[in-house]
Amino acid sequence: MAVAMGLDPKTQSIVSHGYKRLCALTYASEREIRLQLVLLLLAISPVLALDQSISISIPYDQPYRPQYHFSPRENWTNDPNGLVYFEGEYHLFFQYNPFGDQWGHMTWGHAVSRDLVHWEQLPPAISEESGIMIFTGSTVVDEHNTSGFCMNHKPCLVAIYTGHTPKNSDHPTLQTQNLAFSNDRGRTWTKYSGNPVLDLHLPDFRDPKVFWSPQTTRWVMVVALPNDHKVRIYGSADLKHWSALSDFGPAGATGGQWECPELFELPIEGRQGETRWVLKIGLNPGALQGGLASSTSSAVSTVRVLLMTIQSPRQYGRTTARTATVRLHSIIYLPGTRL
Fold first, then answer.
1. Which residues have a catalytic role annotated?
2. N or C, which end of the chain is more exposed by having fewer CB within 10 Å?
3. 57 with 43: CB under 8 angstroms?
4. What span, in angstroms and rounded, lies between the C-alpha atoms of 295 and 311?
5. DSSP assignment string, 12-62
């Protein structure tokens, strides 16, 4: 029983002792058995509360729990973040409140899967600290240690996320771009001591999507300037130092804030060697189909500039789209537009 729960030897001893006492109460009254159960739970509850490495499986048989899509065991969740495949595992990070079932204290929750159907929830990956919440971002595999974070000549995971500092009496709201890294397959994470790596001193500047460009031999970031209805494109050799390359927008749907951008290249069916770059932008609010919900629009470009000659992320970094499913409510064709 104790070993299956993954408890340390001291706690195992407490649980085993309590379990033996329960077994000895075969002929005891129901009240005595309940009392021993309460004492046992009180003995191990501080350990369970403090040790986040303990993973207790909760079945997916609750009446309203999704059976196919991932859901955390408890509490609030929203945007999926940093979806990435690394060393045989699919990693799903997600916006998560570890303290309750309402939005707040945003943290990156974490789950892994080997088949995208069966998920194991792990302890939170990147946590709120010093009043800075962990908003949406992306994760990359740094194959050749361009960041200097990787150890033992092996690739490591690097997360690029928005740090959100809420407004208070001393300062206004602030959103910046930050780094965290892992050298143990995503089980533990260290925030970069030089954070933030991008700070425009703005209250709305968020949701970085980063990928590797093998032809320009640099990392590329697309990040939203929500109130300006713009997506800014940055380049970096090491994930730590970024230079602005270009802006896209305002254009197309501007009914709400722009957020959660994605930029990816797709081949054109039936036209060998010809591709289009697709820029996906979230609108919040301002659903194109009406109502108050968020939605997604896309811009498609035929123009190739130096940045846009990316063919494959395989040479240095591997990354996947941040959103697990994308519904294109509207596609805006903008031939000749510089993404």
1. 79
2. N
3. no
4. 28
5. HHHHHHHHHHHHTTTTS-HHHHHHHHHHHHHHHHHHHHH-TT------S-S
Which residue, 80, 215, 98, is CA-closest to 161?
80
- The beta-carbon contacts of 48-54 under 8 Å, at least 24 apart in sequence, are 51/8, 52/123, 52/124, 53/6, 53/123, 54/5, 54/6, 54/7
Q: What is the spatial distance between Cα 74 and Cα 100, in angstroms, rounded to a whole number?
A: 8
Q: Is 308 helix (H, G, I), strand (E, B) or coil?
A: helix
Region label for 252, one of left (φ > 0), alpha (ψ between -120 and 50) or beta (otherwise) = left
190/188 Cα distance (integer angstroms): 7
What are the tens digits of pLDDT across the range 149-197? Answer: 999 999 999 999 999 999 998 899 999 999 999 999 999 999 999 999 9
The sheet that has 218-225: what strands, in order across it?
206-213, 218-225, 230-236, 243-248
Closest by CA position to 238, among listed 206, 212, 208, 263? 212
Half-sphere exposure in the Cβ direction for 313 (13 Å, CA): 20
- Predicted TM-score (pTM) of the model is 0.73
Q: How big, in percent rounded to 5, are the helix, strand and coil portions of the chain?
A: 15, 40, 45
DSSP reduced 3-state for 151: coil
What value does the mean pLDDT take over residues 290-313?
46
Question: By the 8 A CB rule, do 337 and 249 touch?
Answer: no
Positive or negative, the CA dihedral 127, 133, 139, 141 is: negative
| 323 touches 84 (CB < 8 A) | no
* Cα 217 to Cα 3: distance, rounded to the nearest angstrom: 48
